[in-house]
């Protein structure tokens, strides 16, 4: 020990200098809104697998395309080539979803849809109307008689499932109980000469 240390009563203990405090973590804004995060974390309902679909269309080709696409995704289908047969199948076993052509032999799709919407047991079933006939498409957008969606022929497999995903979501399927159905502007829809195939 040096003389200087003895005069001061012993060696001085070095006091460690305080460490600088760690900076507070910065709040990072989420790149997604809270609602989007909550939806992603919640289990997503698979709106395709197990869906029971009723296809009413007088074109065997359209029926085959819809049947193949739907069954490839785990859906079950029943098919009818006219509205009368389709309504009979509906009475036997109500489906989860209906694809309904507008231009049909005998009763047209508009009339069939009106009957479906008048029955309280079927008012909740989503209906996608389909057609390639320009006059029928015009009538659809004029009347707005209770269909949930519309697909113009020809349509892609992607479009089919995009419609199903939205319509079978619990929050988006319309609940029509107690609602009246608007009257049809025209009972008979006939294809125009030179128009696209129905």
UniProtKB/TrEMBL annotation:
Keywords: Phosphoprotein
SUPFAM superfamilies per record: CheY-like
InterPro entries xrefs: Bact_response_regulator (IPR050595), CheY-like_superfamily (IPR011006), Sig_transdc_resp-reg_receiver (IPR001789)
Biased composition, class Low complexity, residue ranges: 24-33
Short name of one Pfam family: Response_reg
Annotated source species: Simplicispira hankyongi
Swiss-Prot/TrEMBL GO biological process terms: phosphorelay signal transduction system
Protein name per UniProt: Response regulator
Region (Disordered): 1-50
Residues annotated with 4-aspartylphosphate modification: 101
Domain Response regulatory: 52-168
């Amino acid at each position: 020990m040096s003389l200087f240390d003895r005069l001061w009563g012993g060696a001085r203990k070095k006091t460690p200098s305080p460490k600088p405090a760690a900076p507070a973590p910065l709040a990072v804004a989420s790149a997604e809104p809270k609602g989007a995060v909550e939806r992603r974390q919640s289990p997503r309902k698979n709106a395709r697998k197990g869906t029971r679909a009723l296809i009413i269309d007088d074109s065997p080709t359209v029926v085959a395309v819809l049947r193949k696409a739907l069954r490839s995704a785990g859906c079950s289908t029943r098919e009818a080539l006219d509205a009368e047969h389709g309504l009979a199948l509906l009475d036997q076993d109500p489906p989860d979803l209906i694809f309904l052509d507008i231009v049909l032999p005998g009763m047209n799709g508009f009339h069939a849809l009106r009957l479906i919407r008048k029955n309280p047991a079927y008012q909740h079933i989503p209906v996608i109307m389909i057609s390639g006939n320009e006059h029928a498409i015009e009538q659809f957008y004029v009347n707005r008689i209770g269909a949930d969606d519309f697909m113009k022929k020809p349509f892609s497999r992607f479009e089919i499932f995009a419609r199903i995903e939205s319509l079978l979501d619990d929050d988006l399927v319309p609940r029509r109980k107690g609602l009246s159905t608007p009257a049809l502007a025209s009972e008979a829809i006939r294809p125009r000469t030179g128009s696209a195939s129905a």
